[in-house]
Design a protein that fits this description.
This protein is an alpha+beta fold. The chain contains 7 helices and 12 strands. Strands 1, 2, 3, 9, 10, 11 and 12 form a 7-stranded antiparallel β-sheet that branches. Strands 7-4-6-5-8 form a 5-stranded antiparallel β-sheet, sandwiched between helices.
Length: about 250
């Protein structure tokens, strides 16, 4: 009787526009079944929340890397009158996008919600909601058009050329508290945007497709690297400690 080895992964490469991420596991990890992370240190709920926030930030970061254009705008949309209703905020943003489209602008987007905590302290509430959004467009949109289409309060156009890493800058607004309150609804990614390409080697033990060939590294300029440890529980309940090597860079022109 033959024993079937479970599928495992040792390496993967993620292409997000011209940004390249390379991940290599010290020990091959199972990919057929979702393993349980070790929660003995922080507790089940906190550990799960932390992981979900990290994944959400990764998704936002990679979407921005894939879709940022010359005329992309990073805007902040606030309310003149306090807004504490999430559904109301969601409706207002949809109307904002519709108004832009009526003027002929195609604007796929990603946005993150946030509470204005300082304002909340003054008003005695959790803070009025507002939105940080990246509008992906191939056409120039004036600040006046953004302000007129929103029409509910102050708008701020952030100069992207002054932000070294727009994706990281946007991700910082997705807080653990906001995600705990709204979950995946604390950010939105519109349809039709380019998505990252993940090249993995999910095969059987001893049959891994290696990507550590010299040609790959010759075409990428890595600017950041780190090694991180993590733990998870195997199917038999035993604790497994693993680590990854993570490298990030850009394709050479």
């Amino acid at each position: 009787m033959y024993k079937i080895e479970p599928k495992k992964r040792i390496e993967k490469i993620i292409y997000s526009g011209n940004v390249i991420e390379y991940i290599k596991y010290a020990k091959p990890i199972p990919v057929e079944h979702i393993y349980e992370r070790d929660t003995s240190r922080t507790g089940v709920n906190d550990e799960k929340l932390d992981c979900n926030v990290i994944r959400a930030r990764q998704e936002i970061r990679r979407i921005i890397w894939c879709n940022q254009t010359q005329y992309s705008k990073f805007v902040t949309l606030t309310y003149k009158d306090t807004c504490l209703d999430y559904d109301c905020m969601l409706y207002d943003f949809k109307q904002f996008i519709k108004k832009l489209r009526r003027r002929g602008y195609v604007v796929p987007y990603v946005w993150v919600s946030e509470h204005q905590k300082e304002r909340g302290l003054k008003e005695g509430n959790e803070g009025s909601l507002h939105i940080h959004a990246v509008l992906f467009t191939d056409a120039f949109i004036s600040n006046n058009v953004i302000s007129e289409c929103w029409g509910l309060g102050f708008t701020k156009i952030n100069a992207i050329e002054h932000v070294n890493n727009l994706a990281a800058y946007v991700c910082k607004y997705l807080s653990k508290e906001e995600f705990n309150e709204y979950g995946k609804h604390s950010y939105h990614i519109s349809r039709g945007l380019k998505k990252p390409i993940v090249v993995g080697n999910d095969g059987y033990a001893g049959d891994f497709l290696q990507y550590t060939n010299p040609e790959f590294f010759e075409n990428v300029k890595f600017t950041w690297a780190q090694s991180t440890e993590f733990s998870y529980l195997a199917s038999d309940g035993s604790k497994i400690t693993n680590s990854i090597i993570y490298k990030q860079g850009v394709l050479k022109k």
